[in-house]
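Worked Example 4.2. Consider the chain below.
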Amino acid sequence: MSTVQQLPRREPAPDFDRPDAEPAEFKLLALDIDPRQVASDMGDLAARVRSLMSLQQQTVLQLPLGGGFFDAVVTAGGPQAYAAVAVLDEVQRTSAEQPDACGPVIHDPVRDLYVWLVPPGTSEQWSAHRYSLCLGRPHHIALPATTDTEPPGPYWLRSFRGDRLVPPTALRQQLDQFKPGPPPHETLLASVLSTIS
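Applying the procedure from the previous section yields the following structure tokens:
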């Protein structure tokens, strides 16, 4: 038995004279946008869109920190840093979620570093910290492809998801508790961060 039913159709009267439609008219609008009105962090929008498309196409992505995406907190790796990840998994998890709810974390096993992606602007509020370094503008980061979830090379210890970043206050508390070391050094990180993958 068919569940498709023909809808009733109303036939026009035989003497109905349908008027011709007017031709479509398209107007070209000239938009004069003052470059000073463009937000400072939107000047490189095309480059950012191309970068995000690269990430979806499973290639390495170079992305500027700060702006509208994220900042990065860098710590040593090891068991103490992983313990902080496990606690943050619990902090961020809701009842129906997967166990890896911490927020995006990259592990670079060669340098034994964890890179925690935190909300943009965190670097401006992150005071000096013994076990971490928070970077924003003007630094760049090379993100591994989204399919890189294990070594060799840098990989996503916790996946890059569109619905969350690592909460900086909770992260700082866990770093104070677990004390991952040795502490990262800013000079080394400035040269390494953009080549992490």
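The mean pLDDT is 78. Strands lie at 61-64, 71-76, 105-108, 113-118, 133-135, 140-143, 155-158. Compare this with Example 4.1 before moving on.
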